[in-house]
Design the sequence.
């Protein structure tokens, strides 16, 4: 495909190229080996949690219906902004929600984060459709499928000629909410894992009580979680390359290779965040 | 996907901007370290100038990368720059005086691995992807370090996490009244991430001119510097904060007027419309 004579995609447009996948796996193993050698069991658990969180975010981003600039003109389905912005909006809303519940245990906090992210995207999707239908006067119709996979409603009759569809059909709306749930849960999980590590080790390093270092632990964990979240969201966005309608879009099938990239990226960023207080 | 859709015409070569940005940022950071050597806080503003140098370099890198059509919008480039930069920056603060050098090396490693993942695993196949993401991670780390040095007076971990609070006339150490403990870093993160991407996002298109874009980035940088100076009043002496603010204000005014001039130069035509038209009679 490259006009500049670069390497051709080895595994096709949606497949996984074998050599980069193996190299990624090697980097992934090296990071875990490094953690095993210098870190404590708590740190190891935290790193595994961060990778799971990263995978949740990377997978979740693929569900969110991203329309980009064409959607702003009603010429493509989805929410009219970029992937990184939407993921940041939904995921960070979830992360902040989950952080409030951090003291009530991992499960409660992660579920709270998921609900925060899902709610944020549900509200966004609702108002996107509100503006499209009542403001711009266009119905919701998918351009990628003939029938909505969930409701079975026919789409073709409602699609305007010359467009790729418009608005948010039910399946896209559902995809958005699922994406928000996964993103919020993943972001919160990363935050909680880092918070545990910092709360355990910062008092010793800074020679202060656990209560005194609480602001530092919360702020550091939050900042690293936001950093890791954005890195993974943008990598997943690169995988989608622009716009996606939701889980029924053919581009959704690209997610396996995003999972490889997100696992390595979250392990890499996570190990830095943990080693800050380890070596 | 990897067809270059926009060509760079005229202006300074990227290599020159890269070297200038990197050198100026490192010099600026070390000049802000004079604070520790001399025992004052008046040199904090050098951190802000270092951040602006890094931002100008970073925006040109975004221009190079985005000219291949990454499809995810220009803001995403700013987000990944600062997302990877903040991780390298926070880790590097442990190394005291060597923090800027460690941050550059670490950010370059993180950026290169992320670039490899994007280019090969995610099959973007953009020739400048690895180089651009490496540069952007370094820019993110240096910008954050610059603004951190400006707000808290230093870029070491202990200085960023420990502040002081006055209780009944006594000065007590406090972790909450610090740069990281007070989460000022989150504001700086967004100030930088917006400043780095806005220049290209606003100036892109067939009428793109290098000097106009870089002037806009400098303007955004000085605007961020003014906000950072206001925040720095909470942590460093008022005189140092006012000095930073004044330098930011003067720089902003100069770059803003210059940017308007350049915009008029590049415009096909313009009409000097008064903001509020005067209504005759009633």
Sequence:
């Amino acid at each position: 495909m490259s006009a500049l004579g670069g390497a051709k995609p080895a595994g096709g447009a949606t497949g996984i190229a074998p050599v980069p996948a193996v190299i990624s796996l090697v980097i992934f193993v090296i990071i875990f080996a490094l953690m095993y050698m210098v870190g404590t069991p708590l740190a190891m658990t935290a790193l595994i949690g961060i990778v799971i969180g990263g995978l949740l975010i990377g997978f979740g981003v693929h569900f969110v219906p991203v329309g980009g600039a064409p959607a702003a003109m009603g010429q493509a389905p989805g929410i009219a902004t970029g992937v990184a912005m939407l993921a940041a909006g939904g995921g960070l809303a979830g992360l902040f929600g989950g952080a409030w519940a951090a003291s009530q245990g991992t499960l409660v906090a992660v579920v709270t984060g998921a609900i925060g992210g899902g709610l944020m995207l549900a509200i966004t999707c609702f108002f996107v459709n509100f503006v499209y239908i009542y403001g711009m006067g266009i119905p919701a119709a998918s351009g990628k499928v003939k029938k909505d996979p969930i409701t079975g409603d026919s789409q073709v009759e409602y699609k305007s000629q010359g467009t790729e569809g418009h608005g948010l059909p039910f399946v896209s709306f559902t995809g958005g909410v699922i994406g928000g749930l996964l993103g919020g849960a993943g972001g919160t999980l990363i935050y909680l894992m880092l918070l545990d590590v910092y709360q355990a080790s910062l008092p010793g390093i800074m020679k202060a009580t656990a209560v005194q270092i609480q602001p530092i632990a919360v702020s550091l964990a939050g900042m690293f979680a936001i950093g890791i979240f954005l890195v993974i969201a943008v990598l997943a966005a690169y995988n989608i390359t622009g716009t996606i309608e939701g889980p029924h879009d053919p581009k959704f099938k690209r997610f396996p290779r995003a999972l490889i990239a997100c696992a390595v990226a979250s392990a890499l960023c996570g190990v830095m965040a943990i080693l800050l207080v380890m070596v | 996907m990897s067809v270059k859709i926009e060509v760079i015409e005229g202006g300074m070569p990227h290599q020159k901007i890269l070297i200038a940005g990197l050198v100026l940022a490192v010099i600026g950071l070390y000049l802000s370290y004079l604070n520790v050597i001399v025992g004052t806080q008046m040199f904090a503003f050098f951190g802000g100038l270092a951040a602006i140098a890094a931002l100008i370099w970073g925006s040109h890198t975004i221009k190079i990368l985005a000219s291949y059509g990454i499809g995810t919008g220009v803001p995403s480039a700013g987000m990944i720059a600062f997302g990877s930069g903040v991780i390298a920056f926070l880790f590097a603060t442990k190394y005291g005086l060597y923090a800027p050098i460690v941050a550059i090396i670490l950010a370059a490693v993180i950026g290169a691995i992320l670039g490899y993942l994007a280019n090969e695993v995610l099959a973007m196949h953009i020739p400048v992807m690895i180089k651009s993401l490496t540069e952007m991670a370094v820019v993110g780390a240096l910008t954050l370090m610059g603004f951190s040095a400006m707000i808290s007076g230093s870029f070491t971990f202990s200085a960023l996490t420990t502040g002081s609070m006055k209780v009944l006339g006594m000065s007590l150490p406090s972790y909450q009244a610090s740069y990281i403990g007070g989460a000022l870093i989150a504001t700086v993160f967004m100030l930088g991430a917006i400043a780095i991407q806005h220049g290209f996002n606003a100036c892109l298109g067939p009428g793109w001119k290098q000097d106009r874009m870089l002037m806009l980035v400098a303007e955004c940088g000085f605007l961020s510097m003014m906000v950072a100076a206001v925040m720095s009043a909470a942590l460093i002496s008022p005189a140092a904060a006012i000095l930073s603010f004044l330098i930011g204000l003067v720089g902003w005014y100069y770059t803003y007027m210059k940017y308007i001039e350049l915009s008029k130069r590049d415009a096909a035509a313009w009409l000097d419309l008064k903001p509020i038209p005067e209504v005759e009679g009633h």
